[in-house]
Amino acid sequence: MPAGEAGPAPKPLYAVVKAHVTQRIRDGSWPPGTRIPSENALGPQLGVSRITINRAFAELARDGVLDKVPGVGTFVARAKPRFGLMTIQDIAEEITARGMAWSSQVLALAELPAPAEAAAALGLKPGTAVPHSAVLHRGDAAPIQHEARWLRPGYSDGYLAQDYTRGTTFAHLVRTGRAKEMEQSITAILPDAALARLLAVPRNQPCLVIRRVTFTDGVPMTLSRLVQPADRFEIAGRAVLENG
């Protein structure tokens, strides 16, 4: 190098950490779904501060390389579970198809007075007793979806007697229900404190809400409200367009 010319500037330490993480992913040391060392553990290994590791992890999460699950850990990102815009799928099958292990926690399973939204959607008087379930679906350790359902009384035999840690409410409704039509909308919300805790997200993280009503012979039979963190879930669809 000629005298007086400076060499290339050294990489910032957070960039060195990012390069280390991405190299471990590329060489197969950390395959998709792997829980990688924590910020406190990786810092001493690389000789950098926790703040440096935190910045590197945050940028890799923003780029879709890592998934940070508060209170659980940081994972190498996998393809996100996906629902169609115009279709209905089993969340367990979708999670499994993305290479994760499905599990669930039943939060509620009882006959309860229908809240105003459910009563209106199902064409019932407010307070009518209806079968209700609330289930938290997980992919590996990460919460993927909070599912709440309300059913018109008598619609699905044995709905409240099932073990929804072994199979989904969707699978049972496919076996016993008679849905012929679907009405679906998608919105975004900021979760309240209780929902944020269940989904392991901060209060300022957007979540997608799928609101779905199914019908049999024009009569509404089920209302579902499905909430999922926007960074762990994808909604997509493809349709044939007819040229006029």
TrEMBL record:
The keyword DNA-binding applies. Residues 11-79 form the HTH gntR-type domain. Keywords: DNA-binding, Transcription, Transcription regulation. Transmembrane segments: none annotated. InterPro entries: Bact_HTH_transcr_reg, Chorismate_lyase_/UTRA_dom_sf, Tscrpt_reg_HTH_GntR, UTRA, WH-like_DNA-bd_sf, WH_DNA-bd_sf. PROSITE patterns: HTH_GNTR. The keyword Magnesium does not apply. Pfam families: GntR, UTRA. Gene3D superfamilies: Chorismate lyase-like, Winged helix-like DNA-binding domain superfamily/Winged helix DNA-binding domain. This is UTRA domain-containing protein.
